[in-house]
Specification:
alpha/beta; eight-stranded mixed β-sheet; six-stranded mixed β-sheet; 12 helices; 21 strands
């Protein structure tokens, strides 16, 4: 490991002042991808600066996915940010598949030797921000008018406004971790990218509830009315979802209607979902999106900036973490050994896992969701669920994809 250079310190500029700084890697976005990348690079003495459009309170409060693959859990522990995860995360070694009142337990640990952990994405972000700042990392919230310049040269730079002052950040590389609606991907010339985009005709209506989970594992339920999922965030907080048409409005779903539909779709003899006060309620649209390649010049895209998977497979956060693990390894190879082989192949390497996750997430979408309600398709869904119950090889393949395949080497 190289001797670490003194970190770049960001002071608060005076109103209207133009401010210039320099770092090795500029990271746009303080979500799981950007912050994990920053900590990975810091571990190898590679300076980075993180800029984020939102304020800290907003970033730490965004309710997102909460299922972590074993790969993600292991990496967070390696980075020294797993203490609260270890204490508060809920380890899950299986899932329940329910249809027509019948429930099958899929033992993920027995089938794969691996497990998953329930721990909210907003909690992951809190832990990452705390660690990054405590270790002297540089992070600017509420930046505006972010623009990328000269990304196809060896001297890319970012300009933005912070606290009323123009800022210039010079760097060797830019990591675009700013999500689907961020500025990074649109900074690449349109003719360079191929974008695969499918907007699905259904969404998920999700509620966060002050009620103890009535199940020890997640329940994935097939029902003629549509899919339902029973998940949790803690021993006292439940997270539940129902499939709704994509055009549905949240105001058309008072709490009483949501609970009634959940009880119908999750029903099995002698059991009911625990009800309680609804803390948060929203409808999430479903999109399958991949951009190729995930790099252009000195700009590298990661996480939702490059791909969106339907939430059915719980792969979004986990894919983002895998992206930046690969990118960090490639950047370390560049700075330590002067080799750009892994950087050149970053997109190809990352996309292999992205497309595998995309296939599984869409398989889950087609397996459980009502979609257009075609009776023929519903019978095929039931036949596939029956096959999962009867076939050990089918169950193992499903389990391997659900818990996540072992990490892909960067080179």
């Amino acid at each position: 490991m190289r001797a670490r250079a003194p970190p770049v310190r960001i002071r608060s500029p005076r109103q209207g002042e133009e401010f210039q700084l320099r770092t090795k890697v500029a990271i746009i976005g303080a979500g799981p991808a950007g912050l994990t990348l920053a900590l990975l690079l810091q571990r190898h003495g590679i300076d980075a600066v993180v800029v984020e459009a939102r304020d800290r309170e907003y970033v730490q409060a965004r309710v997102r996915a909460g299922l972590l693959e074993q790969n993600t859990v292991d990496l967070l522990h390696e980075l020294g940010v797993g203490e609260r995860l270890e204490r508060e995360g809920l380890l899950h070694t299986g899932i329940y598949l329910r249809r027509r009142g019948r429930t099958e337990h899929l033992d993920l640990a027995a089938l794969t030797g691996r497990a998953t952990t329930i721990y909210g994405q907003q909690e992951v972000v809190k832990d990452l921000i705390k660690a990054w700042l405590q270790r002297g990392g540089q992070l600017q919230f509420e930046v505006e008018e972010v623009n990328l310049h000269d990304i196809d040269t060896e001297a890319p730079r970012i300009t933005y406004n912070h606290a009323g002052s123009e800022q210039l950040l010079e760097c060797d590389f830019i990591a675009g971790c700013d999500g689907f609606h961020g500025v990074s991907r649109p900074s690449v010339p349109k003719q360079v990218l191929t974008e695969h985009n499918v907007v699905h005709p259904v969404g998920w209506l999700g509620i966060l509830v002050e009620a103890a989970p009535a199940t020890d594992e997640l329940i994935y339920a097939w029902h003629p009315n549509g899919f339902a999922l029973y998940s949790m965030r803690s021993p006292k907080i439940s997270r539940l979802y129902i499939e709704v048409p994509a055009e549905e409005k949240i105001e058309d779903w008072p709490d009483e209607r949501v609970w009634a539909e959940l009880q119908v779709r999750l029903a099995t003899e002698g059991w009911r979902a625990n009800e309680g006060p609804v803390i948060e309620k929203s409808i999430t649209s479903m999109r399958s999106f991949v951009t190729e390649p995930m790099q252009y010049g000195r700009l590298f895209l990661a996480g939702d900036a490059a791909h969106i998977v339907p939430p059915t497979g719980a792969k979004g956060l986990n894919l983002a973490v895998n992206d930046v693990r690969l990118l960090a390894e490639a950047l370390v190879e560049h700075y330590d050994n002067g080799s750009d082989a892994a950087l050149s192949s970053y997109s190809d390497t990352a996309l292999r896992r992205v497309w595998r996750a995309m296939d599984f997430s869409n398989e889950m979408l087609m397996l459980f969701h009502r979609l257009d309600g075609d009776p023929f398709e519903q019978q095929l869904q039931l036949a596939r669920l029956d096959h999962l119950e009867r076939s050990q090889s089918a169950a193992r393949s499903f389990a391997e994809n659900y818990v996540g395949m072992p990490p892909t080497p960067a080179f």
